[in-house]
Design a protein that fits this description.
106 residues; single chain; 27% strand; two-stranded parallel sheet; 3 helices; alpha+beta; extended
Length: 106
């Protein structure tokens, strides 16, 4: 099993949804949606962790130096056409696969 994490920072509204027998917490926000899209994109990039630009800006300078910007995924030459890999440009200070698509936060 492989886990993927998408990290973003921003506001969210928490609310309880359910009935008197079962209640679940739900979080609503465009920021939560962006984190979910980043998490889903980890599969395309073949990585465990993707950070938004907003999240990367909050990192210390030392940690930020260890982060690179992700580029659009490309298909690998393998027989499995569904597998993708990210091409890396090095060294860039922030990671944001959504910046190239115009979906990054303002």
């Amino acid at each position: 099993m492989r886990l993927g994490f998408g990290l973003h920072v921003g506001w969210a509204i928490e609310g309880a949804i359910g009935s008197e027998y079962k209640i679940e917490a739900s979080y609503l926000s465009p920021n939560v949606n962006l984190a979910a899209r980043l998490e889903a994109a980890t599969k395309q990039y073949g990585v465990t962790l993707l950070l938004s630009e907003d999240f990367a800006r909050m990192l210390s300078a030392g940690v930020r130096r260890r982060v690179r910007q992700a580029r659009r995924p490309r298909r690998t030459a393998s027989a499995d056409a569904a597998r993708f890999r990210a091409r890396a440009r090095s060294p860039l200070p922030v990671a944001s696969p959504l910046a190239a698509t115009g979906m990054a936060g303002s």
